[in-house]
Amino acid sequence: MSEKHITILGGGPCGLYAAHTALELGAKITLYEKEDSFGGLAAGHLLGGNWFDLGVHMLHCFDSEIFATCKQVMGEERIEVPLKSHIKWGGKTYHYPLRGRDILAGIPPLTLARCLTGLFIAELQTRFSKSTLGADAQSALIELYGEPLYEFFFEEFTHRYWGIHPRDLSAEFVRRKMPRLSAVDVFKNLLEKLHLTKPRDTTEGALRFETLHYSKTGSETLPRSLATSLQSRGASLHLDSPITKITHNKDLITGTNHGSKTGHFLSTIPLPHLIRALDPPPPPEILHAASQLRFKPMTVYALLIKKEKCMDSLYTYYRDRVFHRVGEPKNAGLLVRPEGHTTLIVETTCEIDDPKWTGQALPEIIADLEAEGLCTPEEITSHHLIHATHAYPIFANGFETHLKEITTYLQRFTNLRTTGRQGAFTYPNMHTAMRMGATTTRELLTK
Ligand SMILES: Cc1cc2nc3c(=O)[nH]c(=O)nc-3n(C[C@H](O)[C@H](O)[C@H](O)COP(=O)(O)OP(=O)(O)OC[C@H]3O[C@@H](n4cnc5c(N)ncnc54)[C@H](O)[C@@H]3O)c2cc1C
């Protein structure tokens, strides 16, 4: 095999697995990560002697090849955890992922009749006319579920979680991010609840009994052990090495602020950053398109609690609280110190410098945790904040055009590919991001 070189930008799950694939293909690797540890959104944070994730990060085993590698590198540190998660709203606790029957069970009888009629009409319409899913998330949700259920559930839920009204989000958001819940499924679930049909073997059913993978130190284990394995096989990995400049000459990338390099380049850093780092800069319309791709930041309130246990599940989603999800990783096997304590990971989507970002929302968060019976203010021993500026890509109306403009422009660079959650502006989980890294690396190195 001829010797090839690949420079990888970003050391999250995608970049690390891209490096693993490149090594298997016999390439030499240089990887640059801007932070002081690997893992990106899935990195671990050691705060006050305890490990915290940015939202409990657990590995799924749906991709057998990737799972086999993770299993091997994590070794004895890997813990198998049965998925147990809930969603709470209106004072009731439901199973998560949300089942159609749960949505319906939470609705008052008259509204329920309206919602069922709306669902039925929506289902008939999509059966007999070609579904377009409309121009924005509002029309897509109404097309799928009918107006009454949209007004009762999806409008407020989406608005609260994302801080953006569904009419300002693209229909693509519904396709990629919202769970599909057809009227037929809802009716079947209802019949199932009334014991008129047998429970079905569906994807949702599979998720219900899914096994996840974690460790005593939380999500830090996977990126750390992947990086250690890469380094032991000769990969050159650099922490604290932000990419601020990417030089190019005609149709080739020639290097970064860390020096010139020949060979291939794989970027997993946020797409707008890649565009802004290009030297010489791209045309103004491409810079403008990049400025239109926005991300939703998030702040995690990492709390140490003087209590053995706060909740029954691994994590619970909340509809009516200042936070949208609370995880208790001790229930997945995390080691918490000192004894008799547990930790809570409280997730909030926010804007940079708003009260949730700065920590000023802490009193409100504590009040909501107490109202949910999770802990009292006195039981909170310490708190830390973890920030992510690029937690979720925002599929705002019109983002597809900007994304297309940028990707078409980048196609001129024959030795560059951009992929992963940030690089492709999409919503993978860890194993999908790793698969994206593997596929793109293979394309680059074997073309
Ligand atoms: C709250 C939350 C919970 C989640 N829970 C799960 C879960 O339980 N299970 C699961 O499978 N997935 C989960 N995910 C998804 C998972 O985090 C992502 O799919 C995964 O991290 C994507 O990997 P990536 O490498 O593509 O991107 P990232 O993880 O974002 O990695 C990108 C890397 O690039 C680096 N970088 C950025 N700019 C530069 C620069 N200029 N120079 C150098 N480096 C740079 C970043 O520091 C980062 O390390 C969750 C996501 C969120 C937000």
Write structural notes for this entry.
The protein has 447 residues and is of the alpha/beta class. It folds into three domains: 5-43 and 220-293 and 396-446, FAD/NAD(P)-binding domain, CATH 3.50.50.60; 98-198, no CATH class; 295-393, Polyamine Oxidase, Chain A, domain 2 (Alpha-Beta Complex). It is built from 17 helices and 20 strands. It has helices at residues 13-24, 64-74, 100-105, 109-128, 137-145, 147-162, 171-177, 183-193, 203-208, 221-232, 271-277, 284-291, 355-358, 362-371, 399-410, 420-423, 430-446; strands spanning 5-9, 28-32, 44-47, 50-53, 78-82, 85-89, 92-95, 211-215, 236-238, 246-249, 252-256, 259-260, 264-267, 278-279, 295-305, 315-318, 325-327, 342-349, 380-393, 416-418. The strands form five sheets. It has a seven-stranded mixed sheet. It has a five-stranded parallel sheet with strand order 9-2-1-13-20, covered by helices on one side. The chain has a four-stranded mixed sheet with strand order 12-11-10-14. The radius of gyration is 23 Å and the shape is globular. The protein starts with a strand and ends with a helix. Mean pLDDT is 89; it is low at 199-208. The site of flavin-adenine dinucleotide (FAD) has 37 residues, from helix 1, helix 16 and helix 17.
